[in-house]
Specification:
The complex is a heterodimer of chains A (380) and B (378).
Chain A: H1 7-34, H2 39-47, H3 66-79, H4 81-101, H5 104-110, H6 112-115, E1 121-124, E2 140-144, E3 147-158, E4 165-171, E5 181-187, E6 193-198, E7 209-220, E8 224-225, H7 231-267, E9 269-270, E10 273-274, H8 279-307, H9 313-337, H10 349-359, H11 366-378
Parallel strand pairs in A: 1-4
Antiparallel strand pairs in A: 2-3, 3-7, 4-5, 5-8, 6-7, 9-10
Chain B: H1 7-33, H2 39-47, H3 66-79, H4 81-100, H5 103-115, E1 121-124, E2 140-144, E3 147-158, E4 165-171, E5 180-186, E6 192-194, E7 208-219, E8 223-224, H6 230-266, E9 268-269, E10 272-273, H7 278-306, H8 312-337, H9 348-356, H10 365-377
Parallel strand pairs in B: 1-4
Antiparallel strand pairs in B: 2-3, 3-7, 4-5, 5-8, 6-7, 9-10
The chains are: A alpha+beta (380), B alpha+beta (378).
Chain lengths: 380, 378
Amino acid sequence: MDFQLTETQTALQDTCRQFAEKELTPNARRWDEHHTFPKEAVEKLAELGLMGVAIPEAHGGAGMDSMCYALAMEEISRGCASTGVIMSVNNSLYCDPVYKNGTEALKKKWLEPFARGEKLGCFGLTEPAAGSDAAAQKTTAVRDGDFYRINGSKNFITNGPEADAIVLFTMTAPAKGNKGITAFVVDTKSPGFVLGKLDNKLGITASHSCSIFFEDLKVPVENRLGEEGQGFKIAMATLDGGRIGIACQALGIARAAYEEALKYAKDRKAFDKPIADLQAIQFMLADMATEIDAARLLIWKAAALKDQGVRHSAESAMAKLYASEMSGRVTHKALQIHGGYGYLKEFDAERHSRDARITEIYEGTSEIQRLVIAASLLRD
Amino acid sequence: MDLQLTETQTHIRDLARRFARERLAPTARQRDREAIFPTAELHEAGELGLLGVNVPEELGGSEAGVVAYALAIAELAEACASTTVAVAVTNMVAEQIARFGTDAQRKAFVPRLVSGKAVAGAFALSETQCGSDASALTTSARRDADGWVVNGQKQWITSGDRAGVVLVFARTGGPGAKGVSAFLVEGGAPGMTAGRPEHKMGLRGSSTVPLTFENCRLATDALLGEEGGGFKIAMSALDGGRIGISAQAIGVLRGCLAASRTYAKQRKAFGGTLAELQAIQWKLADMATDLAAAELLCFRAASLKDQGRPFTREASMSKVFCSEAANRHASEAVQIHGGYGYIDEFPVERYFRDARVQTLYEGTSEIQRKVIAREILK
């Protein structure tokens, strides 16, 4: 048993940390306030190979593993959680399923520029009436010669407003439920692809999400991922990996909040000494540090299993569940340590608290993670 | 990052698992109910190499390392926490003598401890008026022409009335940590008297006693390490001991999860089994998640210790997390069992009682948080 990182992993971690401290942390508050999509930062992420971390170099990616992806996601999200989710969606939810399920021709056109970060991808599973219960979706795709015609709508689609393509889930055989779902790669420039207005969110405001409407949109058969009916399986396998990304985002947010609280506690004086000398504050910081480490270890375990090609649904769910709820607790305490200042936009504590909140909801709510874990636990 | 076990680690774990399931589990309830000290079981543990898992082979130990030690303790604790605590303290005392002792001390004490011939080892640090604040201890050791004379009283000494070797901490100098020295005392030494075993909430098969020293005379060579170096030995033992308590908590967590899972799948309610209800599924999911985190925190600290790297902060994080998780989930395990969780036909009420001490001994949760805070504020 060995918990040390390799030299490659440490080097990547350092690169990402320096990038985040230079390019993200100083801007994150402003981007949040103005809901600015961090276009230039995303371009720089692409230069660093971070938009397709675990995609092989032959397909435009950086050819690294899931552990590297996890380390990078933590550092980037520590700098800016919005940038973190933009990166996570492109890596985990777009590139990963296209790489695993696309034909070579499809990958050439619809993976490589995305893994290189020249284009941006998004993921369309959720609908207004189908969130956690993904099998209840209503968007349909009907075969019409060499095409499918797609009608319906998706919502809460992160990167939707900026994306060049979407991995889209549709019903091709509504009577079959789960087994009637089929996935496609859809060009967002296609006629019939209509963006709704931007969602006005509590946090991660520099990443944009919106509803998307499909009005008799024609997609070529060769853009189908896998066979008809395999969509649900593709979605679930994708989310197993996506959950590692979101767990890392939650971890990065928590670490930023904790580090700022630690610094504040050393500077701020009360009762004639720094509040870091008070046990009440010390114990909060100790719990924050402990839970951050626990979350990171759960993430590394899930990532290590993914890299070994072992099934990791339960481990990813545990990592995501623990890290996101931990992030909620830690950002709350960090704001508390800042007192009234924590409630002001002059500090980042309030942003971290808002940013953390989503991690308990998207890519499977905490409730769904517990269902996944319990199902694995109770299996004979 | 590699979570695979080595062959040695797997071997020790499997050995401990078999011993725990075959020899400890069947009698654990009776041992608890009747407060029976596990003398024979300790001897068997010694024969299997489980009393000196991280002790050099030349001294009779298994030399399998700290991760292996944690794996073994977790297996034993799932079956019987009472036996486990006596095993853990014996390992800890043997390890400190192997580390800080002279050649003569190592040869005289360690093989006896790890073989089980000394029954058990005891670690005498706490006193009536000093628990968490160990550097304030008042038991004294005065040097005279023939060696040392020890006076004072120790409290909460696990196996104190059974141990063949007692590691005693006493004041040889001025106040504070630098005035403390460590001594090796033979069980039954004249002047050292064990009081009545405490009636405890849990760990009822282990014996916890006060130890009184009245002009207890020790030879010059009873001093372990340097004069004034006792506190360092105590803290080194407790850093490692925290990994041991973490592993005990992991054993309890595993036991709670296994018992709750079995019960939930059998027990019928509302036309189905408990396991089909989301309220119960979520308790199990949370238990499994915290167990996974607890294992990783514990094995990380153990692995750092194996590699000779600093592990103080990691051991404290592990101890506070594992012990508090064991308490939360032992309570949930009782809840899942309903009324049956409250009676001793199921193991969970024992787990509940056994878990409770884990946030107290070898450094309370409060002390762990102090240690973590000190480390992160450095």
